[in-house]
Amino acid sequence: PSADDLADEMEDVDFEDEGAEEPDAEAWETEDDEGVEDGMEAQDDSEVTFSLHSASVFCVSLDPKTNTLAVTGGEDDKAFVWRMSDGELLFECSGHKDSVTCAGFSHDSVFVATGDMSGLIKVWRVDTKEEVWSFEVGDLEWMEWHPQAHVLLAGTADGNSWMWKIPSGDCKTFQGPACPATCGRILPDGKRAVVGYEDGTMRIWDLKQGISLHVLKGQDGHQDPLTCVASNQDGSLIMTGSVDCHAKLVNSATGKVVCVFKMESMAPKAPTGEGEEAESNSVESLGFCNVMPLAAVGYLDGTLAIYDLSTQSLRHKCQHESGIVQLLWEESSAVVYTCSLDGAVRLWDARSGKMISEYRGHSAEILDFAVNKDASIVVTTSGDHQAKVFCVQRPDR
Predict the structure, then answer these.
(1) Degrees (nearest 5) of the Cα angle 112, 193, 169?
(2) 117 vs 169, 176, 231, 303, 368, CA distance in Å?
(3) Where are the domains of the chain?
(4) pTM of the model
(5) Hey, how many other C-beta atoms are within 10 angstroms of the C-beta on 313?
(6) Which Gene3D superfamilies does the entry mention (predicted)?
(7) Class for domain 95-113+128-264+280-364, per CATH?
(8) Cβ(245)–Cβ(263) under 8 Å?
(9) Which residue of 42, 65, 73, 374 has the smallest Cβ count within 10 Å?
């Protein structure tokens, strides 16, 4: 039932004692809120719901080889590997003592890695469901598999980035500044990684030599902590996003900033509380389109900005009611997906800036999501303790 239906139902209710109007009105208001929430849950566009988590589900990743499995990690200190087709549990990645904030499959889906906030990382062999390796680092900020090898990279709160061969555990560390390594990404060539830090600096590391090839700091760096990094398909361009609301485009070969996309011109015009608005905004997610020279930047204030890289200009602004948590581009089209704090997944056509479709089903904010290879399925995780599978394939695309 929609909110309107619920309102209609309420009109049919007889108030026995009309004299007691005020307390009654309050009672109805609280009922009303519940009604709205029920309304939110009532619209469920998902095909499958995975509900074994007992707290917020923080992260999700899909297996790249078969695109049939998902791994999710949550605030309940648990991670599960399950089938997307029916939500059937394959196995639990047990033994974590803190919120599982990172989880992912190796490039060939042979291994799955799970990492918790306290820094315990475990790797499991998917076919045997057995743990093959574990290691404890400092507080974990991010974790990523190498795109071509059984190599795991992770960044920690002490500023170090760690690299291990799996399952042998051969290890290398890359020492950053004495502040958290807040985000990181292995470049497509598999030889370099870009890491962003809380002090606003960014480093490009040579993974083999263990040396930093380029450092962006001061005016070239960000003024506030980095929140996200991305690279284009051939790794020639890197984009960094920060709490300072700037997204920087960097040439990965020279380490030089090509241009800066600023949010100032897009700040809300409201004269009151302008300072607060500015403070509460930041770049939350970004990514490059594979088929056109476009990049997308998602902001905490709900703005999705599509930038044209050839002219270095803003092409479209797609406004969301609430903050964008993450965005992902479809692999072979100019369609960008966003998930936001209002619990919806939206598909946008980056050429026109128009919304293609919207999917709902969560009763709380979406915290992470993943799209499968052929862009037919989206898997979301939420503060409502659930993960959901949505079919997004449309006949006209």
Answers:
(1) 45
(2) 20, 19, 26, 29, 16
(3) 95-113+128-264+280-364
(4) 0.85
(5) 10
(6) YVTN repeat-like/Quinoprotein amine dehydrogenase (2.130.10.10)
(7) mainly beta
(8) yes
(9) 374
Token couple for 7: 């309102």
Both tokens of 209, joined, read 């030599």
- pLDDT (tens digit, 0 to 9) for every residue of the chain, 397 residues total? 555 555 555 444 444 444 444 444 444 443 334 444 444 546 899 999 999 999 999 999 999 999 999 999 999 999 999 999 999 999 999 999 999 999 999 999 999 999 999 999 999 999 999 999 999 999 999 999 999 999 999 999 999 999 999 999 999 999 999 999 999 999 999 999 999 999 999 999 999 999 999 999 998 999 999 999 999 999 999 999 999 999 999 999 999 999 999 875 444 444 444 444 445 799 999 999 999 999 999 999 999 999 999 999 999 999 999 999 999 999 999 999 999 999 999 999 999 999 999 999 999 999 999 999 999 999 999 999 999 999 997 655 5
**Residue type at 13?**
V
How many whole angstroms separate alpha carbon 350 and alpha carbon 339? 16
Choose among 231, 235, 229, 232: nearest CA to 201: 229
Instruction: Report which residue type is found at 224.
Output: D
**In the numeric block, which tokens belong to residue 176?**
């950053």
Q: How does 358-379 read in b/e, with b if 16+ C-beta sit within 10 Å?
A: ebbbbbbbbbbbbbbeebebbb
